[in-house]
Design goal:
Order of helices and strands: HHEEHEEHEEEEHH
Strand order of the largest sheet: 4-7-6-5
Oligomer: single chain
Helix content: 40-55%
Shape: rod-shaped
Number of helices: 6
Structural class: alpha+beta
Number of strands: 8
Largest sheet: 4 strands, antiparallel
Strand content: 15-25%
Distance between the termini: 33 Å
Length: about 250
């Protein structure tokens, strides 16, 4: 552009270079920051929703599964809020429903745990870690011990001697009634034996196991994320990220 009467020259090429720099550096950073802000806002709302809908509330381990894969300027054009693989094996049944079978996440190689006494559950409505393994180990040990005592009673009986020394009660100083694995009626699982005191001969179900368990969707993931994005002030968020990117560009 030619000089005017005041001797000032406008350099449009310099302006174009400056605009290119703005487009290449500031805008992608602002866009990435904007997407990350939306994603972290959605994560916060998902955790709040989980607190309301998951019985007893999600455990700290479950909460750690809610993560954000951040967008990065020039590298990743999208921000994703998701569940990590281990936690997803459990949450997926709440989000999508479906049928859990033996060998699936959250089940054993042989059965699916479908019920247990409320008194055994923690504040989150979950069983302690290793609960089934503890029952299985206890039942296996007891089964072996009872088999040995049974064989001993047979020998004592054959010898015409009292079988009292080989009775379970005689060899169980703790007085605990013991447990076993079996099917009673149509219910399969681990049972606590009857105490046989005061006429109480009832068995107590410690863990009900089934071949499969059906789940209906109960966690509205997509709807919660969509509502979160709609309710966030996107204009304000983008303006803040644009200002942040400009300050970074100017070294502020």
């Amino acid at each position: 552009m030619a000089k005017n009467a005041f001797g000032i020259e406008f350099d449009t090429k310099s302006f174009e270079r400056s605009l290119t720099k703005l487009e290449k550096q500031v805008l992608p950073q602002a866009q990435a920051g904007f997407l990350n802000g939306l994603a972290f806002g959605a994560r916060k709302d998902l955790l709040s929703y989980a607190n309301k809908t998951i019985e007893g509330g999600p455990t700290p381990w479950t909460k750690r599964g809610f993560v954000v894969d951040k967008a990065a300027a020039g590298r990743s054009p999208a921000a994703v809020v998701r569940i990590q693989d281990q936690q997803a094996g459990y949450i997926d049944y709440l989000v999508n429903g479906g049928k859990r079978r033996k060998g699936d996440p959250g089940s054993t190689p042989y059965d699916v745990l479908t019920d247990a006494p409320d008194g055994e559950k923690n504040a989150f409505g979950n069983l302690p870690r290793g609960y089934l393994k503890r029952l299985a180990r206890q039942a296996k040990t007891e089964k072996s011990k009872r088999a040995r005592l049974h064989a001993k009673r047979d020998k004592l009986r054959a010898a015409g001697k009292s079988t009292e020394p080989a009775r379970w009660a005689k060899n169980n100083p703790s007085g605990n009634p013991g447990i076993f694995f079996g099917k009673i009626g149509n219910q399969k699982g681990y049972w606590q034996r009857a105490k046989k005191r005061d006429g109480d001969y009832r068995l107590t179900l410690l863990a009900r196991l089934s071949d499969e368990a059906n789940y209906k969707p109960s966690f509205e993931w997509d709807a919660t994320v969509s509502a979160s994005v709609r309710e966030q002030d996107s204009q304000k968020l983008y303006a803040a990220e644009l200002a942040r990117a400009l300050r970074k560009l100017n070294g502020a």
